[in-house]
Design brief:
Shape: globular
Low-confidence stretches: none
Order of helices and strands: EEHEHEEHEHEEEEE
CATH class: Alpha Beta
Number of strands: 11
Family: Belongs to the dihydrofolate reductase family.
Helix content: 10-25%
Strand content: 25-35%
Largest sheet: 9 strands, mixed
Distance between the termini: 20 Å
Number of helices: 4
CATH topology: Dihydrofolate Reductase, subunit A
Catalytic activity: (6S)-5,6,7,8-tetrahydrofolate + NADP(+) = 7,8-dihydrofolate + NADPH + H(+)
Protein name: dihydrofolate reductase
Keywords: NADP, One-carbon metabolism, Oxidoreductase
CATH architecture: 3-Layer(aba) Sandwich
EC number: 1.5.1.3
Length: about 180
């Protein structure tokens, strides 16, 4: 199988927390707009991007927004028995990647959007990987955390032209986006 490039899209606060009780601990409209833009936009109007997520991430998305529009949604689960409308179900990350390979002519980008175990598979697997990390510059109580970004495996790169470089502030919470690229020797 060829190695599709993975794009991890995640927001984490100071302690690398990404969630609490199955939800985001913050509400940042500008970050959600970036998330939608980066995961839905394609250069080729004939193609779509894939979003890969775990079952809990799927369930955390408000029903009115499921499936995420304009994207191919793949949900990882070994326990879901009924396939949600508009979704592909995969039993494992590897099964999801095999499914992506069958869609290669209609897919432009592959985005991993959570949760922690799915991020870990993407970050520590053998696939080329880019991380779009929204650094939420605040402390929030969390029960779910992003795996550590190993500086031997990932290098911080200048933000591509489609990624804002400025710092934002919403509801008293500051945040900015940094991008990491997996290093292959």
């Amino acid at each position: 199988m060829s190695k599709a490039k993975l794009n991890v899209v995640v927001a984490a606060c100071n302690n690398m927390g990404i969630g609490i009780n199955g939800n985001l601990p913050w509400r940042l409209k500008q970050d959600m707009a970036f998330f939608k833009k980066i995961t839905a936009s394609t250069n080729d109007p004939e193609k779509k991007n894939v979003v890969i997520m775990g079952k809990n991430t799927w369930l955390s998305i408000p029903e009115k927004f499921r499936p995420l529009s304009g994207r191919v949604n793949i949900v990882l689960s070994t326990s879901l028995t009924e396939v949600p409308t508009g979704v592909h179900l995969a039993k494992s990350f590897e099964d999801a990647m095999n499914l992506v390979e069958t869609m290669v002519s209609t897919v432009e980008g592959v985005f991993v959007i959570g949760g922690a175990s799915v991020y870990k598979k993407a970050m520590f697997g053998s696939y080329p990987c880019r991380i779009y990390l929204t650094q939420v510059l605040a402390d929030f109580k969390c029960d779910t955390f992003l795996p550590e970004i190993d500086e031997k495996a990932f290098t911080k790169i200048p933000n591509p032209s489609d990624v804002p470089v400025n710092e934002f502030e919403e509801n008293g919470t500051k945040f900015h986006i940094v991008v990491y690229e997996k290093c292959f020797n």
